[in-house]
Design brief:
Structural class: alpha/beta
Strand content: 15-25%
Keywords: Glycosidase, Hydrolase
Radius of gyration: 18 Å
GO molecular function, one term: purine nucleosidase activity
Number of helices: 12
InterPro entries: Inosine/uridine_hydrolase_dom, IUNH, Ribo_hydro-like
Order of helices and strands: EHEHEHHEHEHHEHHHHEEEH
Domain Inosine/uridine-preferring nucleoside hydrolase: 9-304
Largest sheet: 9 strands, mixed
Protein name: Pyrimidine-specific ribonucleoside hydrolase RihA
Helix content: 25-40%
CATH class: Alpha Beta
């Protein structure tokens, strides 16, 4: 691929406040070409995550990006949404009412198949929700692997969990799907809580978004303000971590994230550990080293990427803000 060409990507997501920021980064950075967006149940039910993806793309001026709805439940078990974190809509906080694009007339797995097979360049698949759609794609259409460059997913951890003591939300929502993806043999990059908990939306970060002279900046500030409140209430965090945009940053600027190659397995049966990602950082198991596991993050560089993308997308002036020039880099 021409190193100066935009890299083709598909984002599979369950918006979700941090998924919304991930979509804005995928649309707003010129180094990526967003082929399509697929949605999965996770942070909220499938109708709500799909509506939220359409709303965010509309605010970003990207209604031409096809959106397809995917799986409404995990492969095994019942869906448990994260309403305590993301609210009843899945994107509580900002006013996102207004016209949006339409949902594609094909399911998510079929849209992914078409986009991957028809792409002139290998596609990077970025997953920021449960891996149900991705697992079904690989199981139903194994031929797509020939034109998949890499799967980057936000999920898991080398350390603690956030839904159970050892399991992160995206993985524990559908551990069987994560297991399928990690055993696929494809190049994978895991962006876990051990790294995403370093990207904190501080008061200064939120103020930087708020100071942007466009509605989109205000939307981001409102998203993060609501997110901050739920993280403070549920976890006691002074500032909320923004998980999902880091998976997009890994596709845009890999040096922003430090990774190490490791074997990763998903615990499927543990009474207390179902959904945990077992990361063999010290290579004790002898398993094949298939996954690039994020272990460090250039936090300032990450926020510069996201801020620049939101500024690039622009949008109409926010009437609540006085006319002013664009803000400087943080």
């Amino acid at each position: 691929m021409n190193e100066f060409a935009a890299r083709p990507v598909i984002v599979d997501c369950d918006p979700g406040h941090d998924d919304a920021l991930a979509l804005l980064l995928a649309v707003g950075d010129p180094r990526l070409r967003l082929l399509g967006v697929t949605t999965v149940a996770g942070n909220q039910t499938l109708p709500r995550t799909t509506a939220n993806a359409l709303k965010i793309l509309a605010r970003a001026g990207a209604t031409d990006v096809p959106v397809a709805a995917g799986c409404a439940r995990p492969l095994v078990g019942e869906l448990r949404v994260a309403e305590d974190i993301h609210g009843a809509s899945g994107l509580d906080g900002p006013d996102l009412e207004g016209p949006t694009g339409e949902v594609a007339d094909v399911p998510a797995v079929e849209l992914m198949r078409r986009l991957i097979e028809h792409s002139a360049e290998p596609v990077t698949l970025i997953a920021t929700g449960p891996l149900t759609n991705v697992a079904l794609l690989l199981r139903s259409h194994p031929g797509v692997t020939a034109n998949l460059r890499r799967i980057i997913f936000m999920g898991g951890s080398t350390e603690r969990g956030n839904t159970t003591p050892y399991a992160e939300f995206n993985i524990v929502t559908d551990p069987e799907a994560a297991d399928i993806v990690l055993r696929s043999g494809l190049p994978t990059t895991m962006i876990g809580l051990n790294v995403t908990h370093r990207a904190l939306a501080t008061d200064e970060i939120i103020a930087e978004f708020r100071a942007m002279p466009t509605r989109l900046g205000a939307v981001c500030a409102d998203l993060l303000t609501f997110f901050a409140g739920t993280y403070r209430r549920e976890f006691g965090f002074a500032h909320p971590p923004v998980h999902d945009p880091i998976a997009v940053a890994a596709a845009i600027a890999p040096p922003t994230i430090t990774t190490t190659r490791a074997a990763v397995a998903v615990e499927l049966t543990g009474t207390h550990t179902r959904g945990a990602t077992v990361v063999d950082l010290h290579r004790r198991t002898g398993a094949v080293l298939r996954t690039d596991v994020a272990v460090d993050l250039d936090v300032d560089a990450f926020w510069r990427l996201l801020m620049t993308a939101v500024r690039t997308l622009g949008g109409p002036p926010d009437p609540a803000q006085p006319a002013r020039g664009s803000g400087g880099a943080i």
